[in-house]
Specification:
Layout: E1 2-4, E2 7-9, E3 23-25, E4 30-32, H1 34-51, E5 60-64, H2 69-82, E6 88-95, H3 102-116, E7 119-124, H4 125-129, H5 133-139, H6 147-166, E8 170-172, H7 177-190, E9 202-204, E10 208-210, H8 218-227, H9 245-258, H10 262-280, E11 286-287, E12 294-295, H11 301-313
Parallel strand pairs: 5-6, 5-8, 6-7, 8-10
Antiparallel strand pairs: 1-2, 3-4, 9-10, 11-12
Amino acid sequence: MVKFGHKKVPFMNCNRCGNIAVFSRKYSGESLCSFCFSNSIVQKTSRIISKNNMIQNGDVVGVAVSGGKDSLSLLHVLKKMSESHNFKMIAITVDEGIPGYRDEALEIVRNFCNKLDVEYRSYAYKDLFDLTLEESLELRESEKISSCSICGILRRRVIDFGAKDLDVDVIATGHNLDDVLQTFIINVLSGDTNKIGWMEPITSNKIRKIKPFCEIYENEIVFYAFTNEIPFQSEQCPHMNEGIRTEIREFLNSLENHHSGIKNSMYGSVMKLSQIVKDTNYKQRRACQKCGNQCTGEVCSVCTMLVNLKQDRS
């Protein structure tokens, strides 16, 4: 029995080792101690990487690290895996130029990378585009174009630039299962159905991009960070509530609370639909006429956005 205040509550034993359990994985019925829970996350990530052939022998992996729980936990897991597998890591961080927010994250990432002995590089919007995120938001034609849309497009380009600059073989991001489901619903609601075909755990263009956490629940990554004492930025981005993602997150969490495992089922359906859409709506990629990066049209979304923003500034 464990005493909480004046009440005695029966404790659960870990299903794997018999020690006191600290985490209940409702969709599988497992109760796990801290050690076995952490091992389960590392093992599941390893299986995801293996079955999708995400990381190959001798690869240099550029890990996109924001300072949040997902990316820092991914860095921690990959560091553990690299000790028994032949690949190297470099952390890539993006500085969007958000006053009072990004500085804290950059410091957390720098300190954590030093602790893990992982090489770290930071790239700023201002240096690459001559615009910070805040400056780009002031220049947008309409607030119907959300800050997340602008930031997401620019961030992907910065990470691509960092990967090329550092000559990495693969880019790993901390997108978890919840992120995948939320993005799917956003694409459906916005009518952007072509993007449903781009949701695989691994994509290959000029460089492989992988999501090793794509089958892991967000709340499990939160607990992994907590139980492994991983410091992460708790302050939320000042622009996060401008879009619909927060409402979709709450909706999916409510469904999961009442129907354990429904997120896993939905993920399987999303992957099947993604493959169907990809096969039926395939578009030949070509080089952007302005920057040379791969896109499906004549000019990529980044160059189109930058041209529009800079025209508004002038």
